[in-house]
């Protein structure tokens, strides 16, 4: 993946060295992820974030992050490395227990993100924020688009998923992976809103039930057989490409 330009993501050295500047950056990130979650990334400006954070310097966010792109990256950096580490921990545990079948791979895919529902340091906001970036980042993972945003490596998870879905040709596996990612983040984002808005307890908003049901749905998504119509269209789409072979 290509990283954002040095200019876009440049942070002045003094902004990252003092306890005060570190605290200011953390506050700006927390305010930004909340506003992006509530209003949408396109609906929030750097000026909005400065005002909500009570910054007297109207250029504070630009000073600390260089640009809106740099601020988006800072929010990702706050969360995705922990998600990646937790995912690798689960994959290690499952491998030590005897292997990585589809249920184990899907659990490693789902749980590190779902656990953000219990993260009081912006976990709910991160899920809603990330849901807005799913298409861009997933296309980048599959080399269909070059994003300036950087995410943690997913090669290990992708390889495990390929091995667990031998019935799927690579293009179909990639499409289903994109669908699964959308279902994961949009589903968790909607569930987090239900938790905030519901007045009475209900099985529908039981979080453990929702996560387990979400896991079942994603396993079913990857397990579903390929229909004759889909196989026919895949062959036609493949034949139309240069070289006429599946990649």
TrEMBL record:
<dbReference type="InterPro" id="IPR041586">
    <property type="entry name" value="PsrA_TetR_C"/>
</dbReference>
<feature type="domain" description="PsrA tetracyclin repressor-like C-terminal">
    <location>
        <begin position="107"/>
        <end position="217"/>
    </location>
</feature>
<dbReference type="InterPro" id="IPR009057">
    <property type="entry name" value="Homeodomain-like_sf"/>
</dbReference>
<dbReference type="Pfam" id="PF00440">
    <property type="entry name" value="TetR_N"/>
</dbReference>
<dbReference type="GO" id="GO:0003700">
    <property type="term" value="F:DNA-binding transcription factor activity"/>
</dbReference>
<dbReference type="GO" id="GO:0000976">
    <property type="term" value="F:transcription cis-regulatory region binding"/>
</dbReference>
<feature type="domain" description="HTH tetR-type">
    <location>
        <begin position="30"/>
        <end position="75"/>
    </location>
</feature>
<dbReference type="InterPro" id="IPR001647">
    <property type="entry name" value="HTH_TetR"/>
</dbReference>
<dbReference type="InterPro" id="IPR050109">
    <property type="entry name" value="HTH-type_TetR-like_transc_reg"/>
</dbReference>
<dbReference type="Pfam" id="PF17939">
    <property type="entry name" value="TetR_C_30"/>
</dbReference>
<keyword id="KW-0238">DNA-binding</keyword>
<protein>
    <recommendedName>
        <fullName>HTH tetR-type domain-containing protein</fullName>
    </recommendedName>
</protein>
<keyword id="KW-0804">Transcription</keyword>
<keyword id="KW-0805">Transcription regulation</keyword>
């Amino acid at each position: 993946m290509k990283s954002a330009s040095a200019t876009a993501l440049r942070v002045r050295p003094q902004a990252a060295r003092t306890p005060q500047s570190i605290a200011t950056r953390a506050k700006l990130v927390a305010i930004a992820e909340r506003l992006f979650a509530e209003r949408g990334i396109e609906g929030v400006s750097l000026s909005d974030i400065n005002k909500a954070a009570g910054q007297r310097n109207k250029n504070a966010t630009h000073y600390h992050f260089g640009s809106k792109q740099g601020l988006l990256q800072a929010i990702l950096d706050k969360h995705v490395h922990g998600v990646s580490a937790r995912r690798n921990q689960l994959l290690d545990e499952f491998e030590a227990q005897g292997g990585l079948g589809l249920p184990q791979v899907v659990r490693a895919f789902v749980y590190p993100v779902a656990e953000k529902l219990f993260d009081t340091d912006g976990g709910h906001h991160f899920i809603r924020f990330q849901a807005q970036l799913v298409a861009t980042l997933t296309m980048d993972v599959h080399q269909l688009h070059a994003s300036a945003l950087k995410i943690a490596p997913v090669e290990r998870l992708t390889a495990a998923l390929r091995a667990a879905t031998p019935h799927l040709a690579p293009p179909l596996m990639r499409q289903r992976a994109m669908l699964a990612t959308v279902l994961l983040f949009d589903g968790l984002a909607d569930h987090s809103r239900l938790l905030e808005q519901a007045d009475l307890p209900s099985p529908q908003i039981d979080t453990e039930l929702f996560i387990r049901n979400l896991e079942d749905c994603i396993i079913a998504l990857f397990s579903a057989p390929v229909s004759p119509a889909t196989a026919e269209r895949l062959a036609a789409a493949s034949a139309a490409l240069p070289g006429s072979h599946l990649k």
